[in-house]
Amino acid sequence: MDQLITEPKTLSNDEIFGVLNQFITEVIGEEFVDEMDITPDSSFTKDLEMDSIEIVAFSEKVKIYFGENINFTGWLSNMDLDEIISLKLSDIINYIRLCQ
Questions:
Q1: Residue-level pLDDT, tens digit, the chain, 100 residues
Q2: Is 26 within the bounds of a domain?
Q3: Torsion angle of the four alpha carbons 26, 96, 49, 36, in this order, in degrees rounded to the nearest 10
Q4: pLDDT score recorded for residue 73
Q5: How many domains does the chain have?
Q6: Which residues, including other chains, have CB under 8 Å from residue 99's CB and lie 6 or more apart?
Q7: Across-strand partners of 88?
Q8: Domain for residue 23, yes or no?
Q9: How many angstroms separate the CA atoms of 48 and 39, rounded?
Q10: Does the residue 27 lie in any domain?
């Protein structure tokens, strides 16, 4: 019997944002997220007040969910500190869209 092989579904920006928003909630806690207005323009350090350990935990969730095609840790490692500090959710959404 032939098996039908399908390509993985390409997620829209809104779908990726929803997944990332869930990861943020899991990493920093629902009680903190409830007090925030998280948008694609939210930055990790200023708006979400995530520290380096939380960003690492978030990046692990991205890697597990999106698979090896998304080398989020490698992508971050090519940035300098100022770029990481100013990183916004929209930057990550765009990176994931490029890698899908």
A1: 555 554 557 899 999 999 999 999 999 999 988 889 999 999 988 999 998 899 889 988 998 998 877 888 788 889 998 898 899 999 999 999 999 8
A2: yes
A3: -70
A4: 78
A5: 1
A6: 66, 69, 70, 71
A7: 43
A8: yes
A9: 10
A10: yes
Q: Residue 2: inside a domain, yes or no?
A: no
Predicted local confidence at residue 2, as pLDDT: 54
The span from the CA of 59 to the CA of 43, in Å, is: 15
User: What is the extent of the structural domain holding 33?
Assistant: 13-99
Block residue for tokens 């992508």: 75
As beta bridge partners, residue 43 has: 88
- What is the C-alpha to C-alpha distance for residues 77 and 71, in angstroms, rounded to an integer? 10
CATH of the domain at 69: 1.10.1200.10
Which candidate, 82, 80, 74, 72, places its Cα nearest to that of 20? Answer: 72
